[in-house]
Amino acid sequence: MMRSNRMALLIAALMIAASIGAVVARPVMNAANPESTFLLEAMIPKHFGDWREEQERIVHIINPQDQTLLAKLYSQLVTRTYVNADGYRIMLSVAYGSDQRGSLGAHEPELCYPSSGFILHRREAMQLATQYGEIPVRRLFTSKGQRVEPVTYWLRIGDRVVRGWQRRLVELRYTLSGRVPDGLLFRVSSIDPDQARANKLQDQFVNQLLQSVSSTDRKRLSGLGDT
């Protein structure tokens, strides 16, 4: 409790400092390198490891925001369903926004799923292990009627993946330095009542995807470089 109170006071103090700093040093440049233009559609392979994109069977991927809001929040959005040789399906949603300030920031799944009628049963902070390092992720266990959907996601703001209060601290750091942070929300989910199995296969999916892209694109997707 004492730790939580101290953290709340720290964030409040930084927010006050940021409001002052925003007047003195308004963001004048985007943190993303203007020379590093990329296309998510081309960056993310349609076949890698044990997984291939499935186009024959359409699975509804949760995206509760209307198209107007999606266009405002994200400059790029990729949603696909992949299947492995055993017929297991994983839904991928990757959303990129060049401006993560205030109301323009990415909307996290624990807010989006309930707004689409899902019950959020559990939320856990975890570390997803890869050969390039660990990614701080959140795992959700959700359901809507007969559809049970475990979710794994992370949020990259600027140059790092953040979770919880870290997001505000990173945003404030960029604001005070006069830069506009970009951001990327990476989410995988599967329709599966067995959360342990879903987590294992989602981790495998993430690892094989990160192994299949260049080091530059891996950094964009996960904040991880080469070890």
What is the rounded Rg? 18 Å
What's the average pLDDT?
80
What's the number of extended β-strand segments? 11
Give helix and strand order, one letter per element, not per position.
HEHEEHEEHEEEEHEEHH
Share of helical residues: 25-40%
The portion of residues forming beta strands comes to 25-35%
Low-confidence stretches: 16-28
Largest sheet: 9 strands, antiparallel
How would you sum up this structure, described in words?
With 227 residues, the protein is an alpha+beta fold. It has one domain (2-222). Helices cover 34% and strands 31% of the residues. The chain has helices spanning 2-24, 40-43, 67-73, 109-115, 166-176, 195-212, 215-222, and strands at residues 29-30, 47-48, 51-53, 76-83, 89-97, 119-130, 133-144, 147-157, 160-162, 179-180, 183-189. The strands form 2 sheets. Strands 2, 3, 4, 5, 6, 7, 8, 9 and 11 form a 9-stranded antiparallel sheet that branches. Strand 2 and strand 3 form a beta hairpin. Residues 16-28 have low confidence and may be disordered.
How would you describe this structure in keywords?
34% helix, globular, 227 residues, two-stranded parallel ribbon, alpha+beta, 31% strand, 9-stranded antiparallel β-sheet
Kindly summarize this structure in a few lines.
This protein is α+β, with helices and mostly antiparallel strands and 227 residues long. The protein is built from 7 helices and 11 strands.
